Amino acid sequence: MLADAGARLHRISAFGHDLLRTPADERLHLTDPFFWGGYVMAPWCNRIEAGPTRVGSRLVALESNFPDGTAIHGQVAARPWQVQGDRSFKLRGGGDGWPWRYELSERVSVLDSRLRIELALTNVDDGPMPAGIGIHPWFRRPEMMAIHGELVFVDNVKSDAAPQPVAGQLDLRSVGVVPDGVDATWTDLSNPAVELVWEHRVRATMRIEADHAFVVAATPQELDAIAVEPQTHAPHGLGRLLNGGPGALTMVAPGATLSLVINLDFEQLGSRGHRRTSAR
């Protein structure tokens, strides 16, 4: 874990195999924060519109931080977090165009072959706040993948898209070859929500604990990695909230907390040897 670079996962190793896209120089997590390791997204995930947007009596005025002109992946991916005595991480956020104050906590633990990530966002402002949380790991490209979702938002760039029944290359309910060029969001998820299998016969199984669960997957052809992002809303969640659309940000009351827990279970296929998982 790198507290000074968004409290992000720098490395996940299972059975001697590194499974995250990790830079040789850790400073790249700060200079190019969106394409390495596994980082927290909050107080929103993926894209929302940049520029002035009124939410009740508050004005959201975010600057774009992505080539497509959107504000992407929240405010905390490269900020320093505080390490607590119990080895959890905390951060106070707000401002910089986001007119609410919030507190984030992250706890990462490893028990045998399970990696558990607990995220919580608490509204410490005096009015209700729209919010979303998630984590954005870049996994070294697996050989096979399944996303056990019945519905999919087929395009993460479009802000008004409704979810559709999975079909074609977006029907990933069975483990199969990872399709190239996908950038979509699945919901109506089973548990486990995701399976990943690497060529060295390591399998990761993802289970999500949340009131509302979504999985974004991006498989860019130009990277030898894929993003599989559990989160609490669909992309363009602020616009969806204002338009009454599905997959919107959650309105969190003052003093209330939005939570997301991800369990990743690792196993070595075809082996009865000792299981070992570590995270850094």
Description:
The protein contains two helices and 23 strands. The N and C termini lie close together (4 Å). The protein has one domain: Beta-galactosidase, Chain A, domain 5. Strands 3, 8, 9, 10, 11, 13, 14, 15, 16, 17, 18, 19, 20 and 22 form a 14-stranded antiparallel β-sheet that branches. It has a three-stranded antiparallel β-sheet with strand order 2-1-23, with no helix packed on it. A two-stranded antiparallel sheet has the order 4-7. A hairpin with a 2-residue loop joins strand 1 and strand 2. The protein has helices spanning 28-31, 237-243; strands spanning 12-14, 17-18, 38-41, 47-49, 51-55, 58-62, 70-72, 82-83, 89-95, 98-111, 114-123, 129-131, 134-140, 144-153, 164-165, 176-177, 183-197, 202-209, 214-218, 225-231, 250-252, 257-268, 277-279. 4% of the residues lie in helices and 48% in strands.
Label the structural class.
mainly beta
Fraction in helix: under 10%
Percent of sequence in beta strands: over 45%
Oligomer category: single chain
Biggest sheet details:
14 strands, antiparallel
For the record, the CATH architecture stands as Distorted Sandwich
Would you give the CATH topology?
Beta-galactosidase, Chain A, domain 5
The CATH C-level class name: Mainly Beta
Form type: globular
What is the helix/strand order? Answer: EEHEEEEEEEEEEEEEEEEEEHEEE
Cα end-to-end separation: 4 Å
Number of strands: 23
Total helical elements = 2
Report Rg. 18 Å
> How many domains make up the coordinates?
1
Query: Mean pLDDT score, rounded?
Result: 92
Give unreliable regions as ranges: none
